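sry for the spam today, last one i promise. C-alpha cells for design, 219 residues
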C-alpha cells in the first residue's frame, strides 16, 4: 500500500449527527456543572469556559448545535469529562450528580409551559441588549441570568442543591455565577433532548458515544 493510501485509511470516520449533536449538548452540560463545582470548592471559575456556557444561553436561534457552543475545542473540558463518565472514570462525582439533577429538572420544567415562555421572553430581551453576546460573562449579564433562574426555574421542586465550601457558596457573586451556569446547564439539557438524546441511547450505544466524543476532541 502506498503512503497516500495508508494516510487515507487512518483518517477517522465522522460519526453521524445523531451521535455528535447529543455529545456536544452533554459536553455543554458537563462544562457548566464542572464550573459550578469549581466555584463551590475553590471559589473561582475558568473565565473562558464560563463565557462559552453563558453565550449558549443567549444564542436562541442557531442554525445547528455547534453554532450554540462554537468549535468543539470550546467544550474541551466538558467533552473530556463526558468521555470519562462514559468510560467509568469520572474524576469527580459532584459534576455528574449536578448534571443528573439538571436533566431531571429539565423534565419537570417542560411541564410548566408558562414558565418556559416567560423565561424565553426574558432571555430574548437580554440577548438583544447591545454588546451582551460579546461579553456574556460580564457582571451585569451574569446577574440578569441569575435573576432569570430564580424567577422562572428556581421554584421547580426539588431544588438543585450545590455542595461545597460554605464560605464560597455564601458569596453573592458566586451565587449569581452558579445560578447562571445552572441555567446554561438547563439550556444544554433542553438541547440534548431536542437532538434525540436519551438515557437509553447512552446505555446501549455507549461505545458509539465514546467514539463520537473522541472525534470531537480531535476536531
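last one done:
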Amino acid at each position: 500500500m502506498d503512503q497516500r493510501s495508508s494516510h487515507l485509511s487512518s483518517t477517522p470516520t465522522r460519526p453521524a449527527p445523531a451521535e455528535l449533536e447529543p455529545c456536544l449538548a452533554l459536553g455543554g452540560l458537563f462544562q457548566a456543572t464542572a464550573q459550578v463545582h469549581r466555584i463551590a470548592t475553590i471559589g473561582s471559575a475558568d473565565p473562558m469556559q464560563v463565557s462559552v456556557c453563558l453565550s449558549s444561553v443567549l444564542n436562541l436561534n442557531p442554525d445547528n448545535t455547534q453554532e450554540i457552543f462554537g468549535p468543539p475545542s470550546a467544550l474541551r473540558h466538558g467533552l473530556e469529562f463526558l468521555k470519562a463518565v462514559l468510560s467509568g472514570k469520572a474524576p469527580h462525582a459532584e459534576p455528574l450528580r449536578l448534571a443528573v439533577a439538571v436533566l431531571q429538572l429539565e423534565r419537570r420544567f417542560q411541564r410548566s409551559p408558562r414558565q418556559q415562555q416567560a423565561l424565553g421572553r426574558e432571555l430574548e430581551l437580554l440577548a438583544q441588549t447591545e454588546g451582551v453576546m460579546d461579553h456574556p460573562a460580564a457582571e451585569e449579564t451574569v446577574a440578569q441570568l441569575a435573576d432569570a433562574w430564580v424567577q422562572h426555574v428556581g421554584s421547580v421542586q426539588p431544588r438543585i442543591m450545590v455542595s461545597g465550601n460554605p464560605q464560597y457558596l455564601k458569596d453573592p457573586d458566586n451565587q449569581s455565577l452558579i445560578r447562571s451556569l445552572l441555567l446554561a446547564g438547563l439550556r444544554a439539557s433542553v438541547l440534548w433532548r431536542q437532538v434525540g438524546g436519551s438515557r437509553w441511547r447512552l446505555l446501549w450505544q455507549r461505545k458509539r458515544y465514546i467514539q463520537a466524543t473522541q472525534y470531537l476532541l480531535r476536531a
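Residues 17-42 form the longest helix (26 residues). ok im logging off now
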